[in-house]
Amino acid sequence: MTLLKVTNLSKSFGGLRAVSSFNMAIEPGELVGLIGPNGAGKTTAFNLLTGVYDPTEGQIEIDGKNVVGLKPYQITQRGVARTFQNIRLFSELSVLDNVKIAYHFHVKYGLLETVLRLGRYHAEEESLDQKALRFLEIFQLAHRKDEIAKNLPYGEQRRLEIARALAAQPKLLLLDEPAAGMNPQETQQLMDMIRWIRKEFGLTILLIEHDMSLVMGVCERIYVLDYGSIIAQGTPAEIKNNPRVIEAYLGEEVH
Ligand SMILES: Nc1ncnc2c1ncn2[C@@H]1O[C@H](COP(=O)(O)OP(=O)(O)OP(=O)(O)O)[C@@H](O)[C@H]1O
Protein backbone atom coordinates (compact mmCIF):
# COMPACT_ATOMS: atom_id res chain seq x y z
CA MET A 1 0.00 0.00 0.00
CA THR A 2 1.16 3.54 -0.73
CA LEU A 3 2.73 4.90 2.46
CA LEU A 4 2.18 8.59 1.82
CA LYS A 5 -0.49 9.91 -0.50
CA VAL A 6 -0.98 13.64 -0.88
CA THR A 7 -3.85 14.88 -3.00
CA ASN A 8 -4.50 18.43 -4.10
CA LEU A 9 -2.80 19.90 -1.07
CA SER A 10 -2.80 23.69 -0.80
CA LYS A 11 -1.79 26.22 1.82
CA SER A 12 -2.38 29.93 1.60
CA PHE A 13 -0.92 32.59 3.87
CA GLY A 14 -3.18 35.57 3.31
CA GLY A 15 -3.01 36.13 -0.45
CA LEU A 16 0.08 33.96 -0.95
CA ARG A 17 -0.43 30.40 -2.13
CA ALA A 18 2.72 28.83 -0.66
CA VAL A 19 1.69 25.30 -1.70
CA SER A 20 -0.76 24.82 -4.54
CA SER A 21 -2.52 21.61 -5.67
CA PHE A 22 0.40 19.49 -4.52
CA ASN A 23 0.20 15.77 -5.36
CA MET A 24 2.66 13.12 -4.24
CA ALA A 25 2.68 9.37 -3.72
CA ILE A 26 5.49 7.54 -1.96
CA GLU A 27 5.73 3.76 -1.76
CA PRO A 28 7.26 1.94 1.21
CA GLY A 29 11.06 1.82 1.02
CA GLU A 30 11.49 4.66 -1.46
CA LEU A 31 14.09 7.40 -1.07
CA VAL A 32 12.60 10.51 -2.61
CA GLY A 33 13.86 14.08 -2.95
CA LEU A 34 11.88 17.33 -2.88
CA ILE A 35 13.76 20.19 -4.47
CA GLY A 36 12.99 23.69 -5.71
CA PRO A 37 14.32 27.24 -5.67
CA ASN A 38 14.25 29.36 -2.49
CA GLY A 39 10.72 30.09 -1.35
CA ALA A 40 9.21 27.38 -3.58
CA GLY A 41 7.17 25.95 -0.68
CA LYS A 42 9.26 22.93 0.37
CA THR A 43 9.31 23.61 4.11
CA THR A 44 5.62 24.56 4.03
CA ALA A 45 4.93 21.16 2.43
CA PHE A 46 6.83 19.44 5.28
CA ASN A 47 4.94 21.52 7.83
CA LEU A 48 1.67 20.35 6.28
CA LEU A 49 2.77 16.71 6.25
CA THR A 50 3.72 16.86 9.93
CA GLY A 51 0.65 18.72 11.21
CA VAL A 52 2.44 21.99 12.00
CA TYR A 53 0.04 23.70 9.58
CA ASP A 54 -3.49 22.70 8.62
CA PRO A 55 -3.95 22.72 4.86
CA THR A 56 -6.27 25.22 3.23
CA GLU A 57 -7.39 22.34 0.98
CA GLY A 58 -6.47 18.77 0.22
CA GLN A 59 -5.83 15.34 1.67
CA ILE A 60 -2.87 13.66 3.33
CA GLU A 61 -3.04 9.90 3.87
CA ILE A 62 -0.53 7.77 5.70
CA ASP A 63 -1.04 4.03 5.23
CA GLY A 64 -4.40 4.83 3.69
CA LYS A 65 -5.63 6.86 6.68
CA ASN A 66 -6.37 10.56 6.61
CA VAL A 67 -4.10 12.57 8.94
CA VAL A 68 -5.35 16.08 8.19
CA GLY A 69 -6.31 17.77 11.46
CA LEU A 70 -4.03 15.63 13.63
CA LYS A 71 -1.52 17.32 15.93
CA PRO A 72 2.21 16.91 15.20
CA TYR A 73 2.69 14.40 18.06
CA GLN A 74 -0.21 12.31 16.73
CA ILE A 75 1.40 12.26 13.30
CA THR A 76 4.66 11.13 14.92
CA GLN A 77 2.68 8.30 16.52
CA ARG A 78 1.39 7.35 13.05
CA GLY A 79 5.00 6.80 12.04
CA VAL A 80 6.27 10.09 10.65
CA ALA A 81 9.39 11.76 12.09
CA ARG A 82 11.30 14.76 10.82
CA THR A 83 14.33 16.95 11.20
CA PHE A 84 14.35 20.71 10.78
CA GLN A 85 16.18 23.10 8.49
CA ASN A 86 17.40 24.94 11.59
CA ILE A 87 18.54 22.32 14.05
CA ARG A 88 16.08 21.91 16.92
CA LEU A 89 17.69 19.84 19.65
CA PHE A 90 17.06 20.04 23.38
CA SER A 91 20.22 22.09 23.52
CA GLU A 92 20.70 22.00 27.31
CA LEU A 93 20.22 18.23 27.61
CA SER A 94 22.84 15.55 27.07
CA VAL A 95 23.26 13.85 23.73
CA LEU A 96 21.90 10.60 25.19
CA ASP A 97 18.84 12.29 26.71
CA ASN A 98 18.00 13.90 23.38
CA VAL A 99 17.63 10.45 21.84
CA LYS A 100 15.89 8.95 24.88
CA ILE A 101 13.17 11.58 24.81
CA ALA A 102 12.26 10.61 21.26
CA TYR A 103 12.29 6.96 22.17
CA HIS A 104 9.73 7.54 24.94
CA PHE A 105 7.04 7.71 22.28
CA HIS A 106 7.44 3.98 21.84
CA VAL A 107 7.90 2.74 25.37
CA LYS A 108 4.84 1.22 26.89
CA TYR A 109 4.73 2.70 30.34
CA GLY A 110 2.28 5.48 31.13
CA LEU A 111 2.96 9.02 32.16
CA LEU A 112 1.96 8.34 35.77
CA GLU A 113 4.50 5.55 36.04
CA THR A 114 7.13 7.80 34.57
CA VAL A 115 6.37 10.48 37.12
CA LEU A 116 6.18 8.10 40.07
CA ARG A 117 9.03 5.94 38.77
CA LEU A 118 7.02 2.82 39.45
CA GLY A 119 6.29 -0.50 37.85
CA ARG A 120 7.97 -1.30 34.60
CA TYR A 121 9.80 2.00 34.59
CA HIS A 122 13.13 0.84 36.01
CA ALA A 123 13.48 -2.22 33.82
CA GLU A 124 12.50 -0.31 30.69
CA GLU A 125 14.72 2.64 31.53
CA GLU A 126 17.75 0.39 31.37
CA SER A 127 16.96 -1.03 27.99
CA LEU A 128 16.02 2.47 26.86
CA ASP A 129 19.59 3.57 27.62
CA GLN A 130 20.94 0.69 25.57
CA LYS A 131 18.61 1.32 22.66
CA ALA A 132 19.38 5.03 22.63
CA LEU A 133 23.08 4.22 22.68
CA ARG A 134 22.66 1.99 19.67
CA PHE A 135 21.31 4.91 17.67
CA LEU A 136 24.22 7.03 18.82
CA GLU A 137 26.66 4.32 17.71
CA ILE A 138 25.12 4.25 14.24
CA PHE A 139 25.73 7.97 13.95
CA GLN A 140 29.20 7.79 15.48
CA LEU A 141 28.11 9.81 18.48
CA ALA A 142 28.35 7.24 21.30
CA HIS A 143 31.56 8.78 22.63
CA ARG A 144 29.67 12.07 23.00
CA LYS A 145 26.72 10.66 24.94
CA ASP A 146 27.24 12.71 28.13
CA GLU A 147 28.03 15.99 26.43
CA ILE A 148 25.49 18.80 26.35
CA ALA A 149 23.95 18.87 22.88
CA LYS A 150 24.68 22.54 22.20
CA ASN A 151 28.42 21.93 22.70
CA LEU A 152 28.71 19.50 19.79
CA PRO A 153 30.23 20.69 16.51
CA TYR A 154 27.64 21.61 13.91
CA GLY A 155 27.94 18.45 11.76
CA GLU A 156 27.49 16.27 14.84
CA GLN A 157 24.41 18.22 15.93
CA ARG A 158 22.90 17.50 12.51
CA ARG A 159 23.65 13.80 12.90
CA LEU A 160 22.18 13.83 16.41
CA GLU A 161 18.99 15.34 15.05
CA ILE A 162 18.66 12.45 12.60
CA ALA A 163 19.46 9.91 15.34
CA ARG A 164 16.74 11.43 17.48
CA ALA A 165 14.20 11.33 14.66
CA LEU A 166 15.03 7.68 14.03
CA ALA A 167 14.64 6.80 17.70
CA ALA A 168 10.93 7.55 17.37
CA GLN A 169 10.94 4.49 15.06
CA PRO A 170 9.22 6.11 12.10
CA LYS A 171 8.12 4.43 8.90
CA LEU A 172 8.57 7.70 7.08
CA LEU A 173 11.50 9.99 7.81
CA LEU A 174 11.38 13.57 6.55
CA LEU A 175 14.75 15.32 6.38
CA ASP A 176 14.75 19.09 5.85
CA GLU A 177 18.11 20.02 4.31
CA PRO A 178 20.15 17.46 6.23
CA ALA A 179 23.42 18.57 4.64
CA ALA A 180 22.93 22.30 5.26
CA GLY A 181 26.16 23.79 6.55
CA MET A 182 28.17 20.61 6.07
CA ASN A 183 31.46 20.46 4.21
CA PRO A 184 31.85 18.11 1.20
CA GLN A 185 33.39 15.34 3.27
CA GLU A 186 30.61 15.50 5.91
CA THR A 187 28.04 15.56 3.09
CA GLN A 188 29.54 12.43 1.57
CA GLN A 189 29.44 10.65 4.95
CA LEU A 190 25.85 11.76 5.41
CA MET A 191 24.86 10.34 2.02
CA ASP A 192 26.35 6.98 2.96
CA MET A 193 24.53 7.11 6.29
CA ILE A 194 21.18 7.95 4.70
CA ARG A 195 21.50 5.00 2.31
CA TRP A 196 22.52 2.73 5.15
CA ILE A 197 19.71 3.66 7.57
CA ARG A 198 17.13 3.29 4.82
CA LYS A 199 18.27 -0.29 4.25
CA GLU A 200 18.93 -1.19 7.87
CA PHE A 201 15.59 0.12 9.19
CA GLY A 202 13.48 -0.56 6.10
CA LEU A 203 12.68 3.15 6.10
CA THR A 204 10.98 5.37 3.61
CA ILE A 205 12.71 8.74 3.30
CA LEU A 206 11.65 12.07 1.83
CA LEU A 207 14.31 14.75 1.88
CA ILE A 208 14.53 18.42 1.02
CA GLU A 209 17.98 19.40 -0.12
CA HIS A 210 19.76 22.24 -1.87
CA ASP A 211 22.92 20.23 -2.41
CA MET A 212 22.28 18.79 -5.87
CA SER A 213 25.04 16.22 -5.65
CA LEU A 214 23.36 14.80 -2.55
CA VAL A 215 19.89 14.75 -4.10
CA MET A 216 21.05 13.25 -7.37
CA GLY A 217 23.35 10.83 -5.58
CA VAL A 218 20.92 9.28 -3.10
CA CYS A 219 17.37 9.78 -4.35
CA GLU A 220 15.67 7.40 -6.74
CA ARG A 221 12.90 9.80 -7.53
CA ILE A 222 12.67 13.57 -7.28
CA TYR A 223 9.78 16.04 -7.13
CA VAL A 224 10.43 19.64 -8.12
CA LEU A 225 8.42 22.49 -6.61
CA ASP A 226 8.30 25.99 -8.04
CA TYR A 227 6.02 28.74 -6.73
CA GLY A 228 4.14 26.12 -4.68
CA SER A 229 3.38 23.75 -7.58
CA ILE A 230 5.02 20.52 -8.66
CA ILE A 231 6.55 21.29 -12.06
CA ALA A 232 8.30 17.94 -12.59
CA GLN A 233 8.93 14.53 -11.12
CA GLY A 234 11.13 11.68 -12.21
CA THR A 235 14.48 9.98 -11.84
CA PRO A 236 17.57 12.14 -11.21
CA ALA A 237 18.54 11.79 -14.89
CA GLU A 238 15.09 12.91 -16.04
CA ILE A 239 15.07 15.86 -13.64
CA LYS A 240 18.56 16.99 -14.60
CA ASN A 241 17.53 17.29 -18.25
CA ASN A 242 14.03 18.67 -17.74
CA PRO A 243 13.80 22.14 -19.38
CA ARG A 244 11.18 23.41 -16.88
CA VAL A 245 13.45 22.50 -14.01
CA ILE A 246 16.49 24.13 -15.58
CA GLU A 247 14.42 27.21 -16.27
CA ALA A 248 13.12 27.37 -12.70
CA TYR A 249 16.64 27.15 -11.33
CA LEU A 250 18.25 29.51 -13.77
CA GLY A 251 15.27 31.80 -14.13
CA GLU A 252 15.67 31.86 -17.92
CA GLU A 253 14.62 30.03 -21.07
CA VAL A 254 16.60 27.00 -22.10
CA HIS A 255 17.32 26.73 -25.78
N1 LIG B 1 4.12 31.20 8.27
C1 LIG B 1 4.16 31.88 7.11
N2 LIG B 1 3.48 33.01 6.95
C2 LIG B 1 3.49 33.69 5.77
N3 LIG B 1 4.19 33.30 4.70
C3 LIG B 1 4.91 32.16 4.80
C4 LIG B 1 4.94 31.39 6.00
N4 LIG B 1 5.75 30.31 5.80
C5 LIG B 1 6.20 30.41 4.54
N5 LIG B 1 5.70 31.51 3.95
C6 LIG B 1 5.95 31.92 2.55
O1 LIG B 1 5.61 30.82 1.73
C7 LIG B 1 6.52 30.70 0.64
C8 LIG B 1 7.17 29.33 0.68
O2 LIG B 1 8.06 29.27 1.79
P1 LIG B 1 8.84 27.96 2.22
O3 LIG B 1 9.66 28.29 3.43
O4 LIG B 1 7.91 26.82 2.31
O5 LIG B 1 9.81 27.75 0.97
P2 LIG B 1 11.07 26.81 0.82
O6 LIG B 1 10.96 26.19 -0.52
O7 LIG B 1 11.18 25.91 2.00
O8 LIG B 1 12.25 27.88 0.82
P3 LIG B 1 13.79 27.77 1.27
O9 LIG B 1 14.45 26.87 0.29
O10 LIG B 1 14.25 29.19 1.17
O11 LIG B 1 13.78 27.24 2.67
C9 LIG B 1 7.52 31.83 0.78
O12 LIG B 1 7.09 32.88 -0.06
C10 LIG B 1 7.42 32.21 2.23
O13 LIG B 1 7.74 33.56 2.44
Automatic annotation (TrEMBL):
PANTHER family: AMINO ACID ABC TRANSPORTER ATP-BINDING PROTEIN, CONSERVED COMPONENT OF ABC TRANSPORTER FOR NATURAL AMINO ACIDS-RELATED. Residues 4-252 form the ABC transporter domain. The lineage of its organism: Bacteria, Bacillati, Bacillota, Negativicutes, Acetonemataceae. It holds the Pfam family BCA_ABC_TP_C. This is ABC transporter ATP-binding protein. Signal peptide: none annotated. PROSITE patterns: ABC_TRANSPORTER_2. It comes from Anaeroselena agilis. CDD domains: ABC_Mj1267_LivG_branched.
